[in-house]
Amino acid sequence: MLAIIGGTGLDQLGNLKITHRQVIRTPFGEPSGALTFGTINQHEVMFLARHGYGHTIPPHEVNYRANLWALYEQGAKRVIAVASVGGIRADLTPGEIVIPDQILDYTYGRPFTFFDGRERPVIHIDFTLPYSPMLRKHILTAAEKANVKCIDGGVYATTQGPRLETKAEINRLERDGADMVGMTGMPEAALAKELGLSYAAIAVVVNYAAGRGDSRDGIHLDSISKIAEPAMAKVRNILGLVVESDEK
Ligand code: HPA
């Protein structure tokens, strides 16, 4: 089944016909909220709002392990994460939608693995390609069919938040190879990989990163929702067609 993790600006899916909601408990604690089960164009999907349904959980307090575990345990095979980002690369301007293909991790203090404890042999996962190439392709194909422009590829830098970055931090991220910056990409992507889930992200650029474009002297937080709303409508159109792609 396809699971969708909605981020800022996407805490529900208008095109989802809800069948039921289920509170799940996991060995890692509680997910951000009840899982919402339903169908999009007759295909079964489950949905989870990463920051909770009232948007009250900040990025560093999201229980990523519980979220991924709950989706996995309920039968998810593919997970599409929707996330808002700031644009660093020149063509990643507000309103653009990007399907990242690489990730950088600047987070700290977040429980980031299922493989801790001493009772099992050490396990290392291959993380060369953090996002599933197949699922990325399905998203890009769906976007094309939905007539939504989507940028293919980019490096997503995950910062700790909840504060935004300084201009110098963005310059450093750019030197590191980052194209966009968000706060939730990790450890989510790695945890999905540990569970063997096919994981990809749809990143919506909602602002220029600090020091870039009209964020040269500060990020205009009030304009973010104006950018996010129409872009999230496009994301819903993409999701409406991704469900048609091959189920794994
Ligand atoms: N920085 C970090 N996370 C973000 C941003 C940003 O500029 N915009 C949306 N999420």
Counted beta strands: 11
**Helix and strand composition category:** alpha/beta
State the CATH topology. Rossmann fold
Shape: globular
Q: Architecture in CATH?
A: 3-Layer(aba) Sandwich
Helix content: 10-25%
H/E element string? EEEEHEEEHEEHEHEH
CATH class: Alpha Beta
Present as ligands are: hypoxanthine
Low-confidence spans: pLDDT under 50, at least 5 residues?
none
CATH superfamily: Nucleoside phosphorylase domain
Work out the radius of gyration: 17 Å
User: Please, what is the average pLDDT?
Assistant: 94
Oligomerization state of this entry? single chain
Tell me about the biggest sheet? 11 strands, mixed
In what range is the share of β-strand residues? 15-25%
Give a structural overview.
The structure is a single chain. 25% of the residues lie in helices and 25% in strands. By secondary structure, it is of the alpha/beta class. The protein has one domain: Rossmann fold. The chain starts with a strand and ends in a 6-residue tail after the last helix. Strands 1, 2, 3, 4, 5, 6, 7, 8, 9, 10 and 11 form an 11-stranded mixed beta sheet that branches. The radius of gyration is 17 Å and the shape is globular. Helix 3 (167-175) links the parallel strand 9 and strand 10 (180-182). 47% of the residues are buried. The chain is built from 5 helices and 11 strands; from the N terminus they run ββββαβββαββαβαβα. Helix 2 crosses helix 5. Bound molecules: hypoxanthine. Residues 84-86, 159, 164-165, 181-183, 206-207, 209 line the site of hypoxanthine.
